[in-house]
Design goal:
about 300 residues, mainly alpha, 10 helices, Ferritin, about 75% helix, two-stranded parallel sheet, 2 strands
């Protein structure tokens, strides 16, 4: 690996040509990925890709005029001083300050002039991006893409997380409180709740991941959704299970743990209602009524079975 300051003018041009070609492909891959969801933003990346192609052709002509058609096999990954290209918007090949610093240090007049030109070209990338953004992304387009972005976020994260939280918070009430009122023993109740929470989390995680691969619905990675759903299911169940860690040696330990668990259940159901109102456009009072009714029914079933 060579230092940037040690490159010859020929090698600097070869690295620049390779970098422009790679960046053009990266921008086009961004455009293809965004085209269906954010078509206007995709146009910006398409224009940037064309801009990179134009720079590559300009540099290639310059290289052929000076050194012929044979490019040395050197890329920016072979040069110490080049930033590694990360697939994010407006990542630079090499920072303007770094290029200008190298341009000032080099003693070769041709290389110094070339580095100065490359620095101005990199500055032009930012200006083009800003101009294209202002031209293409009008306020109406931005609003529409923000709406699409919110919809994707809800489908990929909120919906599976909410489904898991609802299942964990509600479905585990019956086995937990059935065990509690059947045994009046906190540790045994905790073990039942722990098993129910983890088991439900694994089941819901696999169910979410295997039910939809996201290719048709656009709901994103099935395993990411499955992980989100599974974790939230487990968290929902553990919330009202943890109070039963109150030691059985305490006076009235069972009733203390049960009272704390009931308070936790209240906040769990309230959180579910808030999320439904916030992201699912469900009226808050309607969401509260629906989730509380379901929770109370499951809770009552568990208590009745446990006390039988």
């Amino acid at each position: 690996m060579k230092n940037f300051a040690d490159l010859t003018e020929r090698e600097v041009l070869a690295v620049a040509i390779s970098a422009e070609e790679e960046d053009s492909r990266i921008y086009m891959s961004f455009a293809e990925d965004l085209a269906e969801r954010y078509p206007e933003s995709a146009k910006i990346f398409e224009e940037m890709a064309e801009e990179e192609k134009g720079h590559r052709h300009m540099l290639l002509e310059m290289y052929e005029q000076r050194f012929g058609k044979n490019l040395p096999p050197i890329r920016r990954d072979n040069v110490r001083g080049f930033l590694r290209r990360r697939p994010i918007w407006l990542t630079k090949n090499l920072s303007l300050d770094a290029i200008r610093k190298e341009a000032a240090r080099t003693q070769d007049v041709g290389v110094r002039r070339l580095l100065g030109d490359l620095a101005e070209a990199e500055k032009g990338h930012e200006n083009v991006a800003a101009r294209l953004t202002d031209q293409i992304l009008s306020p109406d387009v931005r609003a529409e893409e923000d709406k699409t972005r919110r919809r994707v976020f809800v489908l990929q994260y909120v919906q599976p997380g909410l489904a898991g939280l609802m299942d964990g918070s509600v479905s585990t009430l019956a086995p937990l409180f059935a065990a509690a009122f059947a045994t009046h023993h906190n540790w045994q109740t905790f073990l039942v709740g722990l098993a129910a929470s983890i088991g439900a989390g694994i089941s819901m995680g696999f169910a979410e991941a295997l039910s939809d691969d996201g290719s048709l619905t656009g709901r994103g990675s099935p395993w990411l959704r499955g992980l989100t759903c599974g974790l939230m299911t487990t968290v929902g169940g553990l919330g009202h299970t943890m109070p039963y860690l109150v030691p059985d040696t305490w006076p009235n330990a069972f009733w203390i743990a049960t009272a704390i668990a009931c308070v936790v259940v209240f906040f769990e159901l309230w959180a579910i209602a808030y999320i439904r109102a916030r992201y699912m456009d469900t009226p808050f009072l309607q969401a509260v009524f629906q989730i509380v009714i379901g929770g109370v029914i499951v809770l009552a079933v568990g208590i009745l079975i446990g006390a039988a």
